[in-house]
Write a structure and sequence with these properties.
This protein has about 575 residues and is an alpha+beta fold. The protein contains 15 helices and 25 strands. β12 and β13 form a beta hairpin. α2 packs parallel to α4.
């Protein structure tokens, strides 16, 4: 395919290709291709270590992430490593249908089926089956879902798991069941609804739907995870209001509300989502929890915010399209590690500890990964409060970050009932049309139409107003013009209706950029943030270890480059 000139601006499919490098590179080839879990990039030299999550959780996230990243980018690099991940994942299942952690060479523990791991397991099996239709994958998923249903403690109107770990002999304590001690329902039950619901949509599996229905009832009606005003329960028993598991639960339940057509559920989710936004910055930094980990932002939490915001926007709360675009452009993009000049690495593996730690080429192997914990202004979180410096990379955040790229990419251009909707002003190709975004340099978006379309509309950022929006349409040398101030141009608050479009037509939409400053609060710390449109271009105070936002370059004229957008006849829908 001949390359054309496109804006040299954020392209999510290229970011997915970078993520593949890290998902493949973090495999420990000397330890059965079990991926390392975390990394310390500030150590000299940097090193990676294994952890508790290396089995169902890490493998599940890597398989899911690799499938989605390859779908976005077309990249085939590292297929042999991905195959080992898939083989490993299936080997973790026991006869009871549950996925078990293996014996850890560096820790004294017994194998167990951790309930948090199971969410990543069924997630990956669902994406794997979506990709291949492989009957052996469906068989494994059906057995897994049946096991998840079988071991759940069933009350009249809710189901739950009474402990964090299940063993082949059953639950560790009968007292836990008798006393209804359901630990952290959001972590163990709520987040499971998302992949289980998708698996039900794909296959019609009734066990998966039953789990979704009773887990949703548990969360909303009985658990106490969320207070009546939407705030998170910050009690120690509820993991101090842990944001990743709370927001992941909101994502899951929002999807269930849409699937069942339950407007009350959507309203319930919106209330908590709005409360959560008050604890986050408007560019996407989230607390880790409400107490001990408050200063430790996980990329996982941000991706949960992105997914929930998209579902709410699709449900009619269209203001969240802009909220999510700011998250995509800013903290998700900034959280991806592409520049590693500041990381000291070594080619010497003599100090490596088998099945535990590796110093070998850490910078090269982790390029494309996402921040495990970050500050609002720094990739490295090393604050005086909370737990101080812990881990710079976590493989769960790599999997989640990749899924966040996919959620943004797959929802940039959508079709419903003949209407093509451009929801995010990001570079993106499709079988219908291509979108070229000149933001943040210029307030300009160019649409190249590939096929006759009955109706096209584009979301205009709320800061752009409507009186100075201008568009031109060119076809066969004939140019027509229009303005945002024309009557009957606007629907759903923020969408400019362009009407029908013809194959070969080029549409250019321009609008004035917004230059503004905001004061952002992150757990009591204040940051002055400079915006150019929806992009943060500077933040004060600046970070000290690996500063974020302070090195962004913007120009009055958008830099261009040669390239192409990926177009697929059929795309995954998650």
């Amino acid at each position: 395919m001949e390359h054309k000139q496109i804006p040299d601006t954020l392209m999510l499919e290229e970011r997915a290709g970078h993520a593949i490098n890290a998902m493949v590179g973090m495999a420990d080839k000397d330890h059965n291709y079990i991926p390392f879990f975390n990394a310390d990039l500030t150590h000299k030299p940097a090193f990676m270590t294994h952890g508790d999550w290396d089995y169902g959780s890490s493998h599940g996230r890597m398989i899911d992430g690799l499938i989605l990243a390859r779908h976005m980018s077309g990249e085939t690099y590292g297929k042999e490593v991905e195959e080992r991940y898939r083989e490993n994942l299936l080997s973790f299942f026991k006869e009871d249908g549950m996925s078990y952690r293996q014996i850890n060479p560096s820790r004294d523990w017994e194998p167990n089926a951790n309930l948090i791991d199971q969410r990543a397991v069924i997630l990956s099996l669902t994406t794997w089956f979506m990709e291949t239709g492989d009957p052996k994958v469906k068989e494994a998923a059906d057995r897994h879902v049946a096991a998840l249903k079988r071991i759940a403690v069933k009350e009249r109107d809710t189901w739950y798991y009474p402990a964090s770990e299940y063993k082949e002999t059953g639950w560790p304590s009968a007292n836990g069941i008798q006393l209804r001690l359901a630990p952290d329902p959001a972590a163990f039950c709520g987040r499971l609804v998302m992949p289980l619901l998708k698996y039900h949509e794909l296959t019609g599996n009734q066990d998966a739907f039953d789990l979704c229905q009773f887990f949703t009832a548990l969360i909303i009606e009985r658990s106490g995870v969320f207070h009546p005003d939407g705030s998170f329960n910050d009690a120690l028993a509820y993991r101090s209001g842990h944001f990743h598991t709370r927001l992941g639960t909101l994502d899951a339940i929002a999807r269930f509300g849409v699937f069942t057509g339950d407007a009350a559920i959507i309203s319930w989710v919106k209330k908590s989502f709005d409360w959560a936004l008050t604890k986050c910055t408007s560019f996407g930094w989230t607390p880790g929890d409400l107490h001990e980990q408050a200063y430790e932002h996980e990329t996982c939490s941000l991706v949960d915010l992105i997914a929930t915001g998209i579902t709410l926007a699709q449900s009619g709360y269209v203001e969240y399209w802009g909220t999510v675009e700011r998250f995509l452009r800013n903290h998700l993009a900034e959280s991806q590690l592409l520049d590693l000049d500041w990381v000291e690495e070594t080619d010497d593996a003599s100090n490596d500890i088998h099945a535990n730690k590796s110093f070998f080429q850490v910078a090269q192997r982790t390029r494309g990964s996402f921040a495990g914990y970050s500050a609002p202004n720094d990739f490295i979180c090393d604050v005086n409060e909370g737990r101080g410096h812990t881990s710079d990379l976590q493989i769960c955040c790599l999997g989640s970050g990749t899924r966040g790229l996919f959620m943004g990419w797959s929802n940039t251009i959508t079709e419903k009932n003949g209407t093509i909707s451009i929801n995010f002003l990001l570079n993106r190709g499709s079988k219908w049309l291509d979108v070229s975004s000149y933001l943040p340099h210029e307030g300009k978006v160019v649409i190249d139409v590939h096929t006759d379309l009955p109706r096209v509309m584009i979301r205009i950022p709320e800061w752009a107003g409507f009186t100075k929006i201008h568009f031109t349409r060119e076809l066969n040398g004939r140019v027509t013009e229009g303005r945002g101030s024309e009557e009957s141009r606007w629907v759903n608050k923020h969408f400019l209706v362009l009407g029908s479009a013809t194959a070969g037509e080029k549409i250019m939409v321009t609008f004035p950029l917004s230059f503004r400053k905001t004061m952002e609060n992150a757990v009591g710390q204040t940051f002055e943030t400079e915006w150019r449109g929806d992009d943060v271009v500077n933040i004060t105070p600046q970070g000290k270890k690996k500063p974020l936002y302070s090195g962004r370059k913007v120009f009055n004229e958008t830099p261009m480059r040669e390239g192409n957008y990926r177009r697929l006849d059929k795309e995954f829908v998650w």
